């Protein structure tokens, strides 16, 4: 069950598909030049924002919504310091629970301006397979202290050396929204150092230009289009590429996701947006 497809992972867009090297554990040294230490102040979203995605699966041209994921960003504190609290909650719909029940919660507390993570917690229950994953980031030493507990396995404690730009799998959604793509060239690659389980992954996502796309129930949007390579496993063959559409406005909302898998295709689309920081100017008016 460990490698069954995760609704939340697909919605995050950068969770289970990585390209490039991985580093091991036990204070391993991360590969050099595998990401850019982007510097920016948070500009694309505000505290109180909420995004909800419906996750769909198709086999033989019949699309079925099987679950949803909600992302929220709120003001909070961490060890007495101001922080942003990112929370992502994924669940399968009741009819799909009989096939594969998903109840996932991912949380991160980050610096409110740089979005550097302080603390990350992951609680996953997918088809009865459970994972608890906790990270504590120490930016003075550039070390990450990891705790991993999987069902029917002993607890694992580990230490990873991280890059100044390393990030967790919840914060990455917001981090990437704050990168300036205005000068991006077709096929330009943006590297991210991503912590997952007890490893660091180098994720490369490729800018593919601008495109308009229809989103069921919401209308048509002008978008930035990105392609991301998928890691080989029980769900992916390693030859696929996930496609991600991001609204071409100041919010930079990942509004639509599509990925082929070994059997069928998975899609994610926004079905609810609350408390956006900016007007949704990317929506095409009829």
From TrEMBL:
Signal peptide: 1-24
Keywords: Signal
Pfam families per record: DUF3108
InterPro entries attached to this UniProt entry: DUF3108
Protein name: DUF3108 domain-containing protein
């Amino acid at each position: 069950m460990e490698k069954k497809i995760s609704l939340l992972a697909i919605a995050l867009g950068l969770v289970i598909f990585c390209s490039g090297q991985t580093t091991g554990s036990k204070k391993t040294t991360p590969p050099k030049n595998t990401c850019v230490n982007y510097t920016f102040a948070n500009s694309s979203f505000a505290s109180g924002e909420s995004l909800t995605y419906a996750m769909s699966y198709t086999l033989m041209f019949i699309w079925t919504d099987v679950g949803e994921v909600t992302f929220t960003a709120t003001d909070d504190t961490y060890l007495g310091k101001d922080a942003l609290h990112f929370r992502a909650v994924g669940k399968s719909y009741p009819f799909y629970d009989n096939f594969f029940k998903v109840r996932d919660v991912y949380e991160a507390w980050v610096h409110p301006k740089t979005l550097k993570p302080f603390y990350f917690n992951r609680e996953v229950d997918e088809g009865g397979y459970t994972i608890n994953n906790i990270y504590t980031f120490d930016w003075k030493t550039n070390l990450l202290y990891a705790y991993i507990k999987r069902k029917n396995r002993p607890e694992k404690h580990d230490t990873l050396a991280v890059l100044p730009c390393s990030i967790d799998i919840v914060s990455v959604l917001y981090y990437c929204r704050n990168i300036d793509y205005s000068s991006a060239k077709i096929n330009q690659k943006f590297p991210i150092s991503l912590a997952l389980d007890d490893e660091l992954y180098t994720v490369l996502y490729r800018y593919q230009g601008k495109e308009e796309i229809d989103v069921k129930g919401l209308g048509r949007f002008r978008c930035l289009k990105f392609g991301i390579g998928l890691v080989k496993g029980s769900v992916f063959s390693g030859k696929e590429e996930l496609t991600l559409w991001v609204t071409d406005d100041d919010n930079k909302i990942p509004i639509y996701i599509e990925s082929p898998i070994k059997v069928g295709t998975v899609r994610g689309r926004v079905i609810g947006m609350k408390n956006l920081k900016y007007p949704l100017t990317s929506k095409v008016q009829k």
